[in-house]
UniProtKB/TrEMBL annotation:
<protein>
    <submittedName>
        <fullName>EAL domain-containing protein</fullName>
    </submittedName>
</protein>
<feature type="domain" description="EAL">
    <location>
        <begin position="24"/>
        <end position="278"/>
    </location>
</feature>
Amino acid sequence: YAKKKGRNNYQFFNAAMNRRAVERQFIEVGLRRALEAQEFSLYYQPKVNLKTGKITGVEALLRWHHPERGLMLPGDFVSIAEDCGLIVPISRWVLREACRQTKLWLEAGFKPISTAVNISALAFHNQNFLQDLRDILQETALDPACLELELTESVLMPDSQFSNEILQTLKSIGVKLAIDDFGTGYSSLSYLQEFPIDVLKIDQSFVRGIPELARNRIIVTAVTGMGISLKYRVIAEGVETRKQFSFLTSLECDEGQGNYFSPPLAADRCTRLLKTGIAENLLH
Ligand code: C2E
Ligand code: MG
Ligand code: MG
Ligand code: MG
């Protein structure tokens, strides 16, 4: 009601709404200088082959080192960056930085390794997205097969024909495509017929509590089985315990990712982990 009456009518704003608006404004102002001030970094979380224990790749996760607030997670600022359009230049930076680092790892002899990058809806639907990606691949001289793009169902579904055209082009460039947070979005299975996807990442909300939690156990069993039968690489997110790990292995799920193997690490710490090539927990 306050909104309808226009910007000058503050009387219906309660204190909480006001605090939220001030907070958003604070984040937005900070985001506007964060790129130039080099306040972003990427953390990398390994993905582990559940049969061999070998690290097959990493997922790049954006971090913001805020001068006053310290380390901030994507949940604190990505949706605000989307609302004010800043996600487009930020995404370009993420992609370039992830490709640059992956190239360094490949040159250091860590093979095979691929890096997954999360792509937000606005970045995906930006008209320069494909050209930016081509430029970055060329600039960094990274083999496109070593780059995986993680897309959520909500990125793809609103305009599935448009999305499909982009995905086909991405396939022809040679990058790998993953559906992130599988099962949580629009949850239509039809895009599995439509889209040229390589990887299904089962959302961590389903992995939680398995195998004891019957509902999640049944969902994870069914989704993994379907994914394998349809020839996707299936990755379970948010693996935190040995029990979850063992159960996923018994399902012949391809890969796992989560704090059980390793939390997301700054690049130099990730390099040290890659030198061992194997998730430490699996050795015990
Ligand atoms: P996501 O792509 O599903 O990434 C997995 C999230 O789970 C990460 O949170 C990761 O730190 C967290 N995680 C990893 N292992 C565990 C575990 O064992 N247990 C639990 N409970 N959580 C675990 P993070 O880094 O806070 O990122 C949150 C989301 O923000 C990501 O979800 C992704 O959707 C988005 N995001 C991250 N980096 C970027 C980026 O560069 N660009 C865009 N557009 N979005 C990003
Ligand atoms: Mg992801
Ligand atoms: Mg995910
Ligand atoms: Mg998730």
